[in-house]
Amino acid sequence: MKTKRFMTTTIVLLLVLFYAPVIYAEKTVTLKWAHIAPQTPSMVVAPDQFFADQVEKRTNGKVKIDIFWSGTLGKANETLNLLKAGAIEVGSFYTGMHDSAFPIWSAPNSLYFVMTTIEEANQVALQMAELPAVKNEFEKQKVKLLFHRLMGSYMIFSKKPITKIEHFKGLKIRTFGSYLPRAMKAVGAVGVKVATSDIYESLHRGVIDAALWSDIAGFAFKIHEVAPNVCKWDVGSIVAYGSCINLKTWNTLANEIQTTIEGVMKDTQSFVFKHAIQMEKVLEQKMKEGGAIIHEISTQEKEKLKNASPDFLAEWVKKLEKTGKGPEVKEARKLWLEIVEKY
């Protein structure tokens, strides 16, 4: 009798385990996405909306994503912790704000004077993100990378024109990460860390004098309205904010759902690149129409800024070598420089 009861229980458990993914796949799952960017203008966040729409479409409505824009579920520097804790299922954040959590992958987001074009940043996003050391960083934070946005070469949005190296002296300029504040200090400015959602108000109230940012981000947050001088210092392009899903949430999705979303991820990264190239062509004119004054910076002045800044790439390698990550960081640097040389 006991043997018969044991066999029955075992069969039931096996059936539950076998059919669980299928049952889960039939349910409608709604994921909360904490996003740092504003919803408008819609053309700026088109790749993010594309991802959400395609996930719902290709899963036949089994997975829906509700995007909470403009940091309404948490500021940019809070998103990672909310994501890890499972308070949200999907989140967008800058790895440069979390360089201790992403010692290798934070560099393409915050280390300047290395890349200069969107194509270079795109190839870094595609290739470096596949390095085992980078994948391990995401796994340790209990998140899975979905896709990365790209930003063209950074410029300075300022209240007064900043067209010469001496114009930096004494200014308070919005920066983030470990490197940009030191680049500003090298030319006599003060780097101030300000959350993405607070930049507009900080400029408006005079808390900061300028913000170092890309055209697409500056336009999205309407920074040119309060800092109309757009000074094209060409500090460098970056791999911008990444959007991730909580790893536990990901693992609860049925295998066929995961496969479908992975297809959307690939298509979204391709969309991101094409979109960034397109935006680079139209946003300068859009900002001019909104009252911005575009200032071209001479090659000589750009070189002065670059030469004044520390050699961040060498420092990054040396720093991680001291933590025992020598082989990993050298592999990442080698691939990074190969990409820059090729593209």
Features:
343 residues, alpha/beta, D-Maltodextrin-Binding Protein, domain 2, 6-stranded mixed β-sheet, 5-stranded mixed β-sheet, 14 helices, 11 strands, 49% helix, globular
Biggest pleated sheet: 6 strands, mixed
**Average pLDDT reading:** 91
Number of domains: 2
CATH class bucket of the largest domain: Alpha Beta
Uncertain runs = 1-25
Number of strands: 11
- Strand neighbour order, sheet with most strands: 7-6-8-5-9-11
CATH topology of the largest domain: D-Maltodextrin-Binding Protein, domain 2
Structural class: alpha/beta
* CA radius of gyration: 22 Å
Count helical runs: 14
Measured between the Cα atoms of the first and last residue, the distance is: 72 Å
Secondary-structure element sequence?
HEHEHEHHHEEEHEHEHEEHHEHHH
Fold and architecture overview:
- This protein has 343 residues and is an alpha/beta fold.
- It has 2 domains: 2-151 and 238-276, D-Maltodextrin-Binding Protein, domain 2, CATH 3.40.190.170; 155-237 and 283-307, D-Maltodextrin-Binding Protein, domain 2 (3-Layer(aba) Sandwich).
- The chain has helices spanning 2-26, 46-58, 79-85, 107-110, 118-127, 132-140, 180-186, 199-205, 215-220, 247-252, 255-289, 299-308, 312-322, 326-342; strands at residues 29-34, 63-68, 90-93, 143-151, 155-158, 172-175, 190-193, 210-213, 229-232, 238-246, 293-296.
- A 6-stranded mixed sheet has the order 7-6-8-5-9-11, with helices on both faces. A 5-stranded mixed sheet has the order 2-1-3-10-4, sandwiched between helices.
- Strand 6 (172-175), helix 7 (180-186) and strand 7 form a beta-alpha-beta unit.
- Helix 5 (118-127) packs antiparallel against helix 14.
- The longest helix is centred in the last third of the chain and has 35 residues, at 255-289.
- The protein is globular.
- Mean pLDDT is 91; it is low at 1-25.
